[in-house]
């Protein structure tokens, strides 16, 4: 009987983990092609379109621009155009999604 209960408990835990995984995946998919700002450990800020990530938290930004000083808005500072950029996860300090990008998604539904 104990073996049967343990198996059922493990099955329930797996379903919960799969549900959490599905929810996280859905949230990430909703951020695809949204403009985001990533602050890095060396003080640089990259702004671009979120294209993908992986289990190591590496991030790929498209149409990326690099700002050497930390900025309070997306349009300040002198940018350097990078194009496609990969940011290693261990260099990411913070990630912000531009609010206008999110609003266009909700109005489109």
TrEMBL record:
Domain of life: Eukaryota
Entries under SUPFAM superfamilies matching the protein: Sm-like ribonucleoproteins (SSF50182)
Residue ranges constituting the Sm domain according to the UniProt record: 23-101
Pfam families: LSM
Gene3D superfamilies (UniProt xref): 2.30.30.100
Family: Belongs to the snRNP Sm proteins family.
Name of this protein: Sm domain-containing protein
Native source organism of the sequence: Culter alburnus (Topmouth culter)
Upper taxonomic lineage: Eukaryota, Metazoa, Chordata, Craniata, Vertebrata
């Amino acid at each position: 009987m104990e073996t049967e209960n343990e198996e059922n408990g493990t099955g329930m835990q797996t379903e919960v983990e799969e549900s959490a995984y599905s929810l996280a995946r859905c949230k990430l998919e909703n951020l695809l092609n949204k403009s985001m700002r990533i602050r890095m450990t060396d003080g640089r800020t990259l702004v671009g379109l979120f294209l993908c990530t992986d289990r190591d938290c590496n991030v790929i930004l498209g149409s990326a621009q690099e700002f050497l000083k930390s900025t309070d808005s997306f349009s300040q500072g002198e940018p350097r155009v990078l194009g496609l950029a990969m940011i290693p996860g261990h260099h990411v300090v913070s990630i912000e999604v531009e609010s206008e990008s999110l609003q266009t998604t909700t109005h489109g539904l």
